[in-house]
Design brief:
Glycoprotein, Type 4 Pilin; 4 strands; four-stranded antiparallel β-sheet; 5 helices; 147 residues; alpha+beta
Length: 147
């Protein structure tokens, strides 16, 4: 009878402490990875919202014979600025697209920028991307998603 009562007592304190420690370790690894993942997905969405500007600059460059000096915001096929949840404002001057990203969108303490600089080749336009005040993981995601 004594063995049956002992078997029904439940987990020992050390077993519970081990489970809590394992959960703590998993949480310590998972939370930063999740933050990086959400920041990267927001960066990809912000970059996607700039596709209409990239298309407008490409059309402008094609019509102007590869010259980008007339490819400005709201002119020659480049759309006017529009704000989204992830891009607060967009500027286009001589084909260079500059997007301001609010701090809340990327999890930063202050706002950042994404700059897309076109290079006109014989057959296409390639885009170089730079960013300021963005986490390294976000910048890497922007470069990866831009290619």
């Amino acid at each position: 009878m004594n063995l049956k009562a002992r078997a029904q007592q439940g987990f020992t304190l050390i077993e519970l402490m081990i489970v809590v420690a394992i959960i703590g370790i998993l949480a310590a690894v998972a939370i930063p990875q999740y933050k990086d993942y959400t920041s990267k997905s927001k960066a990809a969405s912000a970059l996607t919202s700039l596709d209409s500007y990239k298309t407008g600059v490409a059309l402008c460059a094609q019509e102007a014979g590869g010259v980008l000096t007339t490819c400005d915001l709201g002119a020659n096929g480049v759309p006017p600025t529009m704000a989204t949840a992830l891009v607060s404002s967009v500027a286009v001057a001589d084909g260079v697209i500059t997007a301001n990203v609010p701090a809340s969108a990327m999890g930063n303490s202050s706002a950042g920028t994404i700059v897309l600089t076109p290079t006109v080749n014989e057959a296409n336009i390639s885009w170089a991307i730079t960013s300021t005040n963005m986490p390294a993981a976000v910048t890497a995601a922007l470069i990866k998603n831009n290619s």
